Amino acid sequence: MKSFYLLLWILTAVQVHAQSPVKNSIDALLMEAVPEESHPGVTVGLVKDGQLLYHSSRGSMNLEYQLPFNDSTVFGLASVTKQFTAACIGILEKQGKLSIEEDVRKYIPELAFYGDTIRIKHLLNHTSGLRNHNVLLDLKGFDYSHRGYTNEMIQALMFRQKGTNNAPGEKMLYSNTNYVLLVLIVERVSGMDLHEFSKKELFDPLDMEHSFFIHDLETLVPNRAYPYFATDKGYNQPKSLTLCVGAGGMESTIPDMLRWSELFLNPAHDFSYLKDFLTQRDTLNNGERMSYGRGLFVSPYKTLTTYNHSGRDRGMRSQFIAVPALNLAVVVFANDENINAVNFSYQILDLFVQEPTEAGQKATFTQHSAAALNAYTGTYQELNSDLRMAIYVENDTLKAVSSRGSTGTPLIPEGPNRFSRIDNPYITYAFGQEDADDDLQVDFGGAIFYFERIQLADLPNQHLEIYAGNYYSKELDVTYVLEVIDQQLVLTYPNHRLVLTEGQKGVFGANRRTKYSFHGKNKEEIMYFEVASEGTVKNILFERVN
C-alpha cells in the first residue's frame, strides 16, 4: 500500500507542472504572502480527482539554519487536530465499545453532575456547556511563560467546576475542554494512551506514517517546522512547556493530510464510515440543525458544501478544507502567525469555484423601512463577556461596530431580522431569536457568538470604594484584590493588573472579553461578584474574604 501511494505521489507530482494556470496562480499567492525566502513561510497542498495537483512552499521552516520547507515538513495542526480526536471516538463506537449517546460520567465519574446529562456527542459538537479551560487558566492567572499544562491538570481543574455555561444541547459554545475530556474517554475505553491508539487504529491503516499526537516534549522530530512571530527587532520563536492533546497537539505533513482528505472525497474509501461520523450535523434542543459536525465545520461556500477546520497557536496557523462536489481538498500551514491560512485556502478554492449565475444568486431582502432598521439599533454585549457592539443606522444603512473597532461595517438585509456583512456575506447577524436568552446571534462561518441588548449606566464609575476588597474563588483557587487607586478601580491577581470601568450598572470590564458582575448596592451588601469571560465561561463565583 505504501509503495502504491509513493508511486502515485511521484506520478502526480510530475503532472503538477502541466497544470500551469493553477500552479502559476498559487505560486503568485505564495510570493505575495512570503516576499522573502529567508522569512517564516507557508506550505500548501492540493488534491483534485484523486491526484496531487499542487504541493509547494515558500519561506523557511527553521530560521536558525535557514532551512526551507520541503515535501515532508512536519508541522503542528493546532485545532485541526480535533477531527482526529473525534475519529478515535468514531472508531471505538464502530468497534462497539461505546456509544456517543452515553452519559460522559459513565467514563468520567469525577465530573460533577450539573442537573442534566452531558452525553459524549455533546463533547463532540461543543454543546456540552463545559467551561473552556484556556479561559479558566487565564482567569486563574496561569503563568504560561514559566510553565506548561497537561491533560491531567486540565482534568483536575474541570473536576473543581460547579457550573456550566448552558444546558447540554442548548447551544454551541466552542470549548477546547470538550476534546481534552474526549481523550480521557478514548484512553479509559481502549486501555491505551491516545498516541498509541491513534497510531494503531487510525494512522497506520491510513498510511499516515508522519502523523502523530505528541506524547512528550523531549522526542526529536526530524524535519519539523518551528513557529515564529514578528517583533520590532525581527522574528522570535515561542517556547512552550505545555503537553496537552485532544483539542490540539497533533503533528502531520502535507502528503499525510492530503491522504486523509481522500476519506471525505472518495465514497468507496475503506474508512468512509468515519466521514459520515465526522460530518454528521446534530440538532440543538430547539430542533435547529448545527453547522458543526464532530471535529469539523460543515459550511457553505458560494454554492458548495465544505468540510473544514482551522488551527491557530502562537507563531503558526493551519487550515484544512475538503469540497466533495469538486473532489478537491486544500491544506495550508504557515509558521508565521501573520499569514492568514484560512483566507489563503479560500483564495485557492476560488480558482476552481464558478461564481453563481445571476439566477442562482441568493435574493437580497430589501423590505426594511427606516423605522424597522431603527428597531435593531442599540448597545449589545456578548453574553458572558464585556465585548460590546453598537448597532446604528447611517444613511439608511444598518451598521455594526465593536468596542474593539473604530469603523462601522454596513449590514446587508437577507431576510426578516437577518443581515450579513457587506465585506463578508458568510458573517451573519440574526436579531430577536425566539425562546432564546440572547437578542443577537453573530455567525462567523459556523462559530456562533451570542449578544444581549443592554442599557449602559447613566453615571458610571461612581462610589468605587464599595467594590474594594479581597475576593476568593474555590473553583479557580485564586484571590482577586480590588483597590481604588487614583479614582480608578484596579484589579490585581497573579500576572495581571487591570483597570476596570463600569458598563451596565454594577458590571465592570477592561475590554478584554471578561466581565465582573457585582451584587449589592453598598459595601455591606456586596459579598461576592461573578466573572464571565470570552463567551465560554459563565459565572465563576468570587466571595469576599477578610
TrEMBL record:
Which enzyme type, at the first EC level?
hydrolase
Q: Which residues form the signal peptide?
A: 1-18
SUPFAM superfamilies associated with the record = beta-lactamase/transpeptidase-like (SSF56601)
Positions of the Beta-lactamase-related domain: 35-338
Instruction: Provide the GO MF annotations for this entry.
Output: hydrolase activity
Q: Which keywords does UniProt give here?
A: Hydrolase, Signal
Q: Does the keyword Hydrolase apply?
A: yes
Pfam families for the chain: Beta-lactamase (PF00144)
Domain of life per record: Bacteria
Protein name per its UniProtKB record: Serine hydrolase domain-containing protein
